[in-house]
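2024-03-11 09:14:02 INFO worker-7 job=invfold-0412 stage=load source=structure_tokens
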């Protein structure tokens, strides 16, 4: 039977919504994540494992992860007013993280057993304690079940007894804490146009003061645990993201944003005891691009338009790429080194592995688990989710770029779900 659409029905059918997705944010997301990947392959790998040195080039500038946190904070401001916002974030981030932790742990146990020539009395390579090994000038750390529990609970930074299964995971606990605080503050409207400068500047000034007065190298362990566990040396990055959003929506003057970013950069360098100023400078340059994306036109030029499908795809799997690229990349590089692979092949293989595994983690864990958890949560509330299919958009990207013009006395995030 053929069904026809009457003129009345056609008039009543709303036109398809025009996508408000901006390619500029996808470009920044891809740039930030793959800057981390390249830096870890070519620079960090030989710090953690000296035998992995000798690549054709080295990228020592560490700015990618900081950029990711700034972008994440920006889109918290854009999206926080949406229904079940915090649960949606957790459902998107945590399952993929947990799977990545377990997989990295298992692969690390196998690889380190081989690299160090370990043997186990009870044959338990997964959790056992080695009783013998082969002497090597560069032994690898064998993660333990204790480390696995600590990483699954995201408490690695709170106690020195936990070893990071993958050091790249430091951003996850930081983001989860920041999201929870944002969700707590938002309905109370504590962050409004009037007191925003106080909040923003406290995120820069207070941690620096604590760093040099309370949290020294000789501080009690509980002080170090609280400071490091809350990542107080990183909270200025969320302040920068909020400040950029305020500026992009007309709530913060340009000169104020410039002074704030400069102060945040000084704070970042101070937290590292001014030992990596080149990375801070590089991060400052990238922040100019973030401001251009937030306050300027979309970067939808001809060349970018042609590359848009690839850029959008890479942005969509960027979280997965970030979760699997470092420790698993080091292991692959070492395995290839042991069979005589030259530096270029080790670099290309590690880079390709990050993309492939990131795509698999996104496709088979992140998106389906996000869909499952958000649908089940919506079902408990007696309603259907707005969309049964999760967006390919990365977790830090919203469908809009900013909010409408500010209104008198409103909360800073109250209009965050409106497009400009």
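2024-03-11 09:14:09 INFO worker-7 stage=emit residues=420
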């Amino acid at each position: 039977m053929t069904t026809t659409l009457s003129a009345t029905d056609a008039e009543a059918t709303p036109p398809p919504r025009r996508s408000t997705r901006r390619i500029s944010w996808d470009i920044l997301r891809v740039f930030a994540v793959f800057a981390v990947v390249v830096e870890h392959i070519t620079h960090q790998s030989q710090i953690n494992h000296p035998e992995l040195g000798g690549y054709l080039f080295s990228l020592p500038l560490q700015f990618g992860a900081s950029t990711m946190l700034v972008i994440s904070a920006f889109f918290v401001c854009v999206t926080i007013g949406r229904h079940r916002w915090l649960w949606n974030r957790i459902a998107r981030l945590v399952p993929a993280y947990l799977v990545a932790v377990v997989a990295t742990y298992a692969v690390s146990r196998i690889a380190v057993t081989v690299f160090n020539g370990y043997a186990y009395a009870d044959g338990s390579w997964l959790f056992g304690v080695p009783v013998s090994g082969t002497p090597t000038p560069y032994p690898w750390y064998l993660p333990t079940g204790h480390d696995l529990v600590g990483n699954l609970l995201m408490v690695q930074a709170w106690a020195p007894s936990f070893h990071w299964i993958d050091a790249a995971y430091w951003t996850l606990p930081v983001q989860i804490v920041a999201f929870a605080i944002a969700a707590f503050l938002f309905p109370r409207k504590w962050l409004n146009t009037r007191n925003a400068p106080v909040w923003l500047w406290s995120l820069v000034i207070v941690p620096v003061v604590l760093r040099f007065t309370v949290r020294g190298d000789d501080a009690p362990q509980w002080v170090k645990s609280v400071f490091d566990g809350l990542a107080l040396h990183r909270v200025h990055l969320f302040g920068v993201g909020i400040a950029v959003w305020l500026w992009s929506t007309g709530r913060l003057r340009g000169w104020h944003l410039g002074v704030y970013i400069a102060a945040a950069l000084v704070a970042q360098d101070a937290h590292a005891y001014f030992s990596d100023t080149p990375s801070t400078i590089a991060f400052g340059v990238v922040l100019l691009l973030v401001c251009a994306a937030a306050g300027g036109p979309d970067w939808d030029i001809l060349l970018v338009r042609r590359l848009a499908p690839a850029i959008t795809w890479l942005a969509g799997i960027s979280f997965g790429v970030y979760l699997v690229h470092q420790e698993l990349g080091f292991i692959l590089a070492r395995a290839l080194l042991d069979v005589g692979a030259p530096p270029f092949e080790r670099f290309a293989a590690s880079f390709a592995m990050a993309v492939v595994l990131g795509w698999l983690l996104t496709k088979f864990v992140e998106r389906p688990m996000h869909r499952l958890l958000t649908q089940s949560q919506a079902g408990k509330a007696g309603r259907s989710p707005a969309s049964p299919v999760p967006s390919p958009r990365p977790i830090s990207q919203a469908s809009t770029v900013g909010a409408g013009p500010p209104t008198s006395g409103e909360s800073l995030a109250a209009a965050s779900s409106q497009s400009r």
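2024-03-11 09:14:09 INFO worker-7 stage=report msg="Confidence is low (pLDDT under 50) at residues 1-18, 383-420."
2024-03-11 09:14:10 INFO worker-7 job finished
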